[in-house]
Each structure stands twice: as C-alpha cells, then as structure tokens.
Amino acid sequence: MNLLIEKISDLNDMMMQGAFLEAFEAFYDEDIVIQVNDDRPVIGKELNRISKKNQIDNIIDFKSAKPLKVTVGEQSTMVEWHINYVDKLLGEKCFTQVAVQDWSDGKIIKEKLYCGGKN
Q1: pLDDT tens digits for 10-20?
Q2: What is the CATH number of the domain that holds 82?
Q3: Residue ranges making up the domain that contains 60
C-alpha cells in the first residue's frame, strides 16, 4: 500500500501544478477506462488522451486544482478535488469532483469521476 500512497501523491502533485497530460502519460494504463458520472465510458489510452487534450486546449486560465481528501485502499484510491479554471467556451469553472481509481501494476486501469454542477 505504501507504493500506492507514493503514486497517488506524485500524481496529485503533478495535477496541482497543471501537468495534466504528463500525469496522464505517467500514471494511466494503455487500456484505461474513464467514465464521468453515468456517461458512456471512454476505453483506451489513445481515445482518453484525445479527450483530455481537447479539454486542456480549452483552458485559458488554470487557477487551481487542490486535493481536499485522499483515500487509499487495496489497489484503489479516491481523491476529492476542488478545481478552478477559465474555459474559453464555458467561462469560469469552479467545482468539486471525486475521482475513484483502480490500480494494477502501478498504473490506473479504471477511473470514474463524480461531479455535479460545475458553476
């Protein structure tokens, strides 16, 4: 479990610095499955990379990403985030999101993001 604590700490540090794509490349498995709320899951690193890059390209002012709570279990982590940025299409976005991650061999293999209203 200590290795998982180190990995989620490193991932969170990168996210707080705004190094989203670098964190994605370092910590996500090639067969990653990412789902937002009850939306259809996005399967595979390439499709998720495109999705993340599109989201990041729309950020014109990254203000902050702060982990509020972190929980580590057997091959799983949960992080409650407070996120604040300005999107070129949607304006200022300030919201809380919970990321639940399943890990295998040091990589995230499944992530579900829970978030409600974003403003």
Answers
A1: 999 999 999 99
A2: 3.10.450.50
A3: 2-115
